[in-house]
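The pair is quoted verbatim below.
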Amino acid sequence: MKTWTLRGATTSYVVGVPAHGEWAQLVAWGPHGVADGPSTVAPVGTEHFLPRADVEPLEYAVRGVRYAAPVDLVVSGPDGVDELRPVFVEAIAVSGERGAAAAGAGGEGAAGAGAGAGVGVGAGHEGDSRLSMGGAGGEVDGSGLELVFADVVRGVRLTLHYRIEGDAVERWVSVGNGGDDVLTLHRHESAGFTVPGGNTVKYLWGEWNSEFQQSAVTLERGRFSVGSAQGITGHSYSPYLVVDGDVAYGVQLAWSGSWEMTADADTTGTVRIQAGRVSSSQGLQLRPGETWTSPKAVGACSGEGTDGLARVYHEYERARSRRRTPKVLYNSWFATEFDIRAEHQLELARKAAGIGVETFVVDDGWFVGRTDDAGGLGDWEVDPGKFPNGLDGFIDQLKELGLDFGLWVEPESVNPRSRLAAEHPEWILRTPDREPVLIRNQLLLDLSRDDVTAFVWSTLDQLLSTYDVKYLKWDANRPRLDSGDQRRDLDGRVVTNLYAILDRLRVEHPDVLVEGCAGGGARVDLGMAARVDTLWPSDNTAPLDRLRIQQGFRTGFAPHLMSSWVTDAEGTHDGRERSLDFRFHVAMAGVLGIGADLSRWTDEQLKTATRNIEQYKDIRDIVAEGKVYGLRSGVQYVGPRRSVVFLWETGDGNVRGTLPTRPLRVPLAGLDPAKNYRVGDETLPGSYLLQVGVLLDGTADSHCLVVEVLD
């Protein structure tokens, strides 16, 4: 067997092709040393009753090579046969720069001649190295690898793409039709990851107002599956599965449409994770000469458990961010909802500027026809009745207060009673001759159309070119359900066009920060994380509920993405009162925003806000860039010289001091045991802080501590 090793920062991924060339298989995956030894995933013994391919740890299982075990690719032709027998052709070591570009293209997930086609195979690229079948293989010279297979009967060319960054392994496939017939892709995963050990499968589930809840199943044998058929990532599940054992393994899917992830434990107990798009009931049509490229699936592992696994994904996501210092924002939605009046907004802006806010965001309701959620979407013109001096005049007044301006939009949606709906009924996504399904009194524009995509872009471009907008909150408040003809790749075209608009925004309006929102956290995934500056995890901003949501969010997504507000909201699930400091500390653990009605806050509350905002500005770079460690009663962000520690009292505790107890100390993480640190007025050894910890003072329900190295 020839093998290739992709070596990351602390882990390695080894893939091989047997001498017969019928498939690629995992050889090893894990921390350096473990992955350098004999394979821990290769089966032993003789198979009975089933072909060998059904028991081997295949990297990408094609029907026709594998039959009984789960497959990743099923392709049929006009003769009804759904089997392929691709054979290995060549391996290509991809240069770092082209590997990165290919990985970006691999996220489009569309079919067509050049549309989301990703890496072309056969022509070669300067700087790439073609690797022969002979020899022992070895380490890949560069960050990427392509393994090319071909089925001469169907004329199909299948390329398995690999790229490693840090300890994250990007995988995706491209399927090219070099034959004369139209082919149908019935199943088309991005990758299958064989997990070398563990059978505890962890996942994130939820619903509106309670996203990112953590749960787990023990999968000794059988299948566990999560996904979304909503045309959007969805509130119900996140495209992220973790297998926890001696080493923690995770897989995420970079896709913002319909998707599915499954974990299968075979009869030996080995778990394999599949991740990919979900096609329509008609499958995906691939015409002669076209190439289809899947979204990326990103695998990672850590010898530091699930907490270490989260840090791997955080670093991967930071590498795709613009690494800009997050500004403290105020959003007026909870204070005003649709009742937008310039003078009232300015009253809130003055209060916000007074406590240290840097950006003021006008939420839903600023445009014509928008007095409730039943009208206005699609007609993106400033309502002169709400802004009698014009929006530009309002922005000038904000500037005098020292505030940047932000604006809410929902450009993918339309209200039936809008002017746009009357002028362009053909732009609305619906099933002909059927009553459209209304969600929140709105429908979706058909973003698979070029003219609709052009309209959405021109709308945003005109707004951002006309007005000095520094922050854009992009919302999406309904799923994609009734959508007519399923013979087209609607999901692929819609998501590809969405990504193209977001990518273009970064190029043509680089100073505008974009927040991704979807009725709360219904569009949080690696595809969006690479294209927006922050993500809105949930509409639930109550302190104890939000703390639990954010804890789940951080298992797969970095704090620089986590938009979090201080409001006066009562809990949906846990309505116990918590202090204003507690609310601030929860929000300061991400990208801080304020959403409360400041006109109702007392002077004491405003002073508390000012104090916390001032502290946040001092620590926000550490929160955004530091390594994140989960603590027993909080979270720690570790920077080069300073650490930030948030501690929360989530139970009743002994806050009244009526019961005898011992001081509760929380051990810290990520420090040097040989150095000394300042914590408040104390100087303590790192070894003490790691083993004993800091005091969780029961007289307050939360704390924000700065730990500074002295040596």
